[in-house]
Amino acid sequence: MRARRSMLPSALTMGEPAGVGPDVTLAAWMRRAEAGLSPFYVIGDPLLYARRAERLGLRVPIAAATAEAAAELFAEALPVVDLGRAVAGDPGRLDDGDAGAVVASIERAVADVRAGRAAAVVTNPIHKHALYRAGFTHPGHTEFLGALAADFAAPPDGVAWRPIMMLAGPDLRTVPVTVHVSLAQAARDLSAETIVATARIVAADLVSRFGLPSPRLVVAGLNPHAGEDGAMGREDLEVIAPAVAQLRAEGLDVRGPLPADTLFHARARATYDAALCMYHDQALIPVKTLAFDETVNVTLGLPFVRTSPDHGTALDIAGSGRALPDSLMAALKMAAEMGGA
Q1: Are residues 277 and 325 in the same domain?
Q2: Are residue 3 and residue 149 in the same domain, yes or no?
Q3: Maximum CA pair distance of the chain?
């Protein structure tokens, strides 16, 4: 990625307050200098961070702040934009009453970027089932952000913003074409139209957000050996190959379908900039295996930058001091670089 820095801070959401979000936020701020982090502020309840810092034995000054003042305060204290909503945030213990603040934190972060107060949105992990119990209707973060994007200017194609998940590590970027569905449903949902639409967004954002002038994409097969000419399934011949042909006809540098079992070793990775995978685990297993603590979840296809650490709420270790901030720090660094576009 080309090195670009924004003068604006990143807006970090609170995430699930009973999880490790507060832990890694505090730890990331403590390591801000050694990690070379640009300024960020977190949106939530200042008392949550004060309580968690005390529990963890961390000497982190907490400064109630505005987004506009965050960059100036960042060197000396963790800036927290107060939502005016107290949260329980007892480590490891979900409280349904906290759901409203979790959602409001995300909404405020997006609003701050839209208003020019922040350069990017960085999201701490949410606990989806806790939000569902409180009436949250979106499958997850990505879909909610797509809905919030509707308040921005219309997309270039005039249709709708279409958020795409990309997992980005130091040595590999992968994109699942189908995401949070069963393997059987993924095969049913897969279509040439979806592959083409996903590849177009990935290629465009690799140019605009990552500074790659001519992105090289590969497309994994769905079946073993990419279907073995139809002997192990027809999807590779009848769905994926036509999509690749269309993309190539549009001038994109795309290859596939290629057998997934030979797509992720070092020599293969050197030949492409991102791999489109046909289902969730096909995309996430290789990137997490290569760099579990450094992988970043990036949402493409939005009118704003959004990154996230690639781990969950980890309720079982919240408040214990065992949560590593590496993935959050990687997400903050990537957001600052992308936010300068």
Answers
A1: no
A2: yes
A3: 63
More confident residue, 286 or 310: 286
The β-bridge relationship of strands 120-122 and 296-300 is unpaired
Which tokens is 21 given? 């979000």
> What Rg do the C-alpha atoms of the chain give, in angstroms?
20
| Cα gap 268→171, rounded to integer Å | 11
Domain count within the chain: 2
Q: In this structure, are 101 and 248 located in the same domain?
A: no
Q: pTM here?
A: 0.91
Helices assigned H by DSSP within 155-300 = 183-189, 192-208, 235, 241-249, 266-269, 280-290
Does residue 135 sit in helix, strand or coil? Answer: coil
Q: Give percent of the chain above pLDDT 70.
A: 96
Q: Looking at residue 218, which CATH number applies to its domain?
A: 3.40.718.10
pLDDT at position 160 is 65
The whole-angstrom separation of Cα 277 and Cα 167 is 11
Residue that wins the pLDDT comparison between 24 and 3: 24
The 3-state secondary structure of 2-68 reads CCCCCCCCEEEECCCCCCCHHHHHHHHHHCHHHHCCCCEEEEECHHHHHHHHHHHCCCCCEEECCHH
Task: For residue 163, give the nearest of 294, 172, 152 by alpha carbon.
Answer: 152
